[in-house]
Design goal:
Elements lengths: L1 H18 L16 H12 L3 E10 L2 E7 L11 H9 L3 E3 L8 E8 L5 E9 L6 H17 L4 H5 L6
Antiparallel strand pairs: 1-2, 1-5, 3-4, 4-5
């Protein structure tokens, strides 16, 4: 019975994703959705003080798009080179802080808990006097924590649970 209910919820989430206008580029831009993905993004920022923002993008048969983010305006954006390169190579894309953007922008391939590639996750991390290697290691640790919390891509699109 529980497996049947999970299957139905997952099927409904996938159907909703497929039927929602603009889903090829993700949900409507500028609006946080009350999904498990958004809950996970918010949890990572709350748990890790140097992580200033997170964007979670998922692959689909129509491409790749941001489905959850710290900044609502990022939701619905199609993936670009920052996300696509780590998805293809498995290597993180690391942009060092600049005069205009004082954080490391690190994007990594995202997998579910079983190791299946499902998208990409980008993080802005404040240097706080740490080296590039230390920042990249922190991003990898946060990614690992996220991936352990993702039983499947479909789970990310389900309604958020109450905590």
């Amino acid at each position: 019975m529980i497996q049947t209910n999970r299957f139905l919820i997952t099927a409904l989430a996938c159907l909703l994703l497929a039927l929602t206008p603009g889903v090829a580029a993700g949900p409507k831009r500028g609006k946080h959705l009350n999904t498990y993905a958004q809950q996970l993004v918010d949890r990572m920022v709350a748990r890790h003080s140097q992580v200033k923002s997170v964007e979670l993008a998922l692959l689909s048969n129509k491409g790749c798009a941001t489905v959850a983010a710290t900044a609502a305006e990022d939701i619905g954006e199609a993936c670009d080179a920052d996300e696509n390169a780590p998805i293809k190579t498995g290597k993180p894309d690391v942009e060092a802080p600049s005069k205009y953007d004082p954080v490391y922008d690190i994007t990594q391939a995202l997998h579910d808990a079983s190791g299946k590639l499902i998208g990409a996750v980008g993080m802005d991390i404040a240097p706080a006097g740490r080296s590039r290697a230390e920042i990249v290691a922190q991003a990898a640790a946060v990614l690992n924590e996220m991936e352990r919390s993702i039983p499947s891509k479909a789970k990310l699109l389900e309604p958020a649970s109450r905590e």
